Amino acid sequence: MAEPILEVRDLHVWYGHIHALKGASLVLGAGEVVALIGGNGAGKSTMLRTISGILRPREGEIRARGQSLLGIPAHEVVVRGISHAPEGRKVFTALTVDENLAMGAWVLDRDRSRIARQRERVFALFPRLFERRHQLAGTLSGGEQQMLAIGRALMADPGVLLLDEPSLGLAPILVEKIFATIREIHAAGVSILLVEQNARGALALADRGYVLETGRVALSGPAADLLVDARVKSAYLGER
């Protein structure tokens, strides 16, 4: 595995009386794609929300490039080079595509040339967004909103991208497009932690994977090994 760019150790997170993460750990190496798979309620989104500072753990450690992220507000996590494209897209529906992208670029501190480069990068990845750049985000299709959510996260020029269910609810042809785009983002040097209900597609894309079950890491290893693991095939790939 490459040198760690993100490390999560023994994370415990609660929602009220619900113990959502129960000592979960993972590592994302520099230049890797790591898939996090599991059933509904396993704690996958909780993991991403905790890394990005939206949730606070009761116990455990999160380190990015060796520096602790504990107690750091979510906007400062973005400053540290970690962007999050959340489940459900969460675009600003009353703003245009361009305005949504500008919101993602606030961390670049009005560096106009850098912001312009990132916008060009996003439009190269998602030509449809360029065509829709003056359109209100709320009028976009589901697939276009997903493109915008990823594009907005990329506007901060992150070293680490957290992707939460990017293919959820999309037609198969759009799923293929989103996965192809994730490969392009990775090829450009971004490390990616991918939460995805399409376990087969996620593991086919990833270098390594983790299987979360009821808040704990049940399995981990090279993604190619998990794809042929009998337990994974039975529980998540629909094979017996």
List the helices and strands and how they pair.
Layout: E1 4-15, E2 18-29, E3 33-37, H1 44-51, E4 59-64, E5 67-68, H2 74-79, E6 82-85, H3 97-104, H4 112-125, H5 127-131, H6 142-154, E7 160-164, H7 172-187, E8 191-195, H8 199-205, E9 208-213, E10 216-222, H9 223-228, H10 230-236
Parallel strand pairs: 3-8, 3-9, 6-7, 7-8
Antiparallel strand pairs: 1-2, 1-4, 4-5, 9-10
Describe the structure.
With 240 residues, the protein is of the alpha/beta class. A six-stranded mixed beta sheet has the order 6-7-8-3-9-10, sandwiched between helices. It has a four-stranded antiparallel beta sheet with strand order 2-1-4-5, covered by helices on one side. Strand 1 and strand 2 form a beta hairpin. The protein has a domain of 131 residues: 3-Layer(aba) Sandwich (Rossmann fold). Helix content is 38%, strand content 27%. The protein is built from ten helices and ten strands.
